[in-house]
## 1
Amino acid sequence: MEKTVDWEQTALISELNQGKELAKQLLNHLHPSSSNETREFLVSKILSCYEKALSSLNWGEQPKPMTSILESPRSFANSSPRSAGSDQDSKHRDVYKKRKTLPRWTEQVKVCSGTGLEGPVDDGYSWRKYGQKDILGANFPRGYYRCTHRHGQGCLATKLVQRSDEDPNILEVTYRGRHTCSQSSRLNVASAPLKSPRLTENKNNHHHHHHHAQQQKLKEKPAQEIGCNVAARLTVKTEGLEAREEDDIFPSFSFSLTPIGSENEDAILFCESMLENNFMGSLSPTFLSPATSDSNMFPMSPFSEEVLAIEKL
DNA sequence: TTTATTTGACCCCA
DNA sequence: TGGGGTCAAATAAA
């Protein structure tokens, strides 16, 4: 068993190192004179490396897409209101239990903007708000979001967005579950153009708000109108990783192509910082943390989000 | 017309 | 029993 693990680890390190080298090469091609084909080729190679790396982590063994387990978690509830037969009740309970075991991690996202208005924190996924609650002891309401593809693809990823009491500029984003939808593996997630301006919470991002009513009235401006927004991931805190499905915490690797060619400087800075942090070549738990393996590690949205520091707590 | 958000009500669990 | 999480009807926006 040990040997298998060692071998896998070696293979993993090898793939990641290869990815690192390819990223360096890509870095050298982030010049207008370099062809797109070359870049795309390098990106595909990098992705291939990560695919292999993930495979060596027995990636393919788990994601028994929640779809099969929880397909339409509410399907039974649809057929009959909330409480039907005892059988359905138990199914309902199973759903709650299952959700309880989902991996969970929190990011603190600092949101600020040069314009005085604050815009959406685009983490590369499309979310749909399904609820908002006032939380006891919190000054700001908590927003509940789920993956847009919940019904279409049975993606159970959800996130909770809570504005920090201490610093309203900080959003505490708690992610739950891994994306099993196609967007989790597509390349261009982060470039998804501004998605719905309704990616809320952020809409409510007026720094003067201390009252929910005010926040809710503050109807967001479309992100496009907001201008340069900067959202910086400050910290990443993993929780509930003891959950049995720890292996379920790795979303497919996502990589933004957007900056290439268009935002070369940003891309270069980004890549450099990633390389400096030895991001590609490290097997540290930080890398393996769900949050860092999420596309959130690459918040290179059109909003020029920057990763300042990621710290596993 | 379609898609997303709001919001009151419901459910589970500590 | 109350707080947190979720649903789904109503509403708003595109």
## 2
Amino acid sequence: MEKRKIELSESCRKSIQGIKDTQDLLSGKWKAAIVGALFYNGKFRFMDLSRHVVGVAPKVLSKELKDLEMNHLVKRTVLDTMPITVEYELTSQGKSLHRIIEAMGEWGIKYRKSLLKK
Amino acid sequence: MEKRKIELSESCRKSIQGIKDTQDLLSGKWKAAIVGALFYNGKFRFMDLSRHVVGVAPKVLSKELKDLEMNHLVKRTVLDTMPITVEYELTSQGKSLHRIIEAMGEWGIKYRKSLLKK
DNA sequence: CAGGATCCGGTTAGATACTG
DNA sequence: CAGTATCTAACCGGATCCTG
């Protein structure tokens, strides 16, 4: 019983830590949306991405992509074209976020609808 | 075919917007963790909450709770005790975040483990 | 106990312009 | 095309102390 209680709170503590870790990696106004765009479309060039993530400034997009790349969620590939083009895509690690991303998308859509009703 | 394509990109656009909306509501370093703590434990008093969300300063916790309350994700109840105590709990709207919260917790735990292997 | 008051430094993100 | 440079205002979040 006592043991049980400790285990429960221990697993809870771990979950909260996990939530925090995840939130840190997806911090800021744009990262989750960027991952979402890449998730739904596969590969994207910088310009296409900036068109799909509406409103993000190039400087900000560039910085967020670097962060995501550093954390191995996004892979950046420079293509040897003229002029050069760059492709961004999710790594397998990044793709493993799909449950979160899908849930966020669906929840956000429902939330917006529930606001309109009022 | 053309119709199909438009519908696809339309639903994608909506999903990205949903992701953004969700991320806005859970923005900042602590909100998701706070929701997680409330999710795993039900009700919490201010002090208990601050103990479970390790590291958060009272001022910050207070502000985040207000934000969450404003967006109808958290309900605040003042109990008529001496001295007064306050209980926080998720609203049904807040509880509906459970898929996101659970997924974030699980993903974060796995991510942390994958880091330790290296 | 549940916060508010104050102070503060760092980060964030936007606008605009520019480069290889 | 794929970013960088510069500037700036706003905000975030931490520390510390205080109050009903």
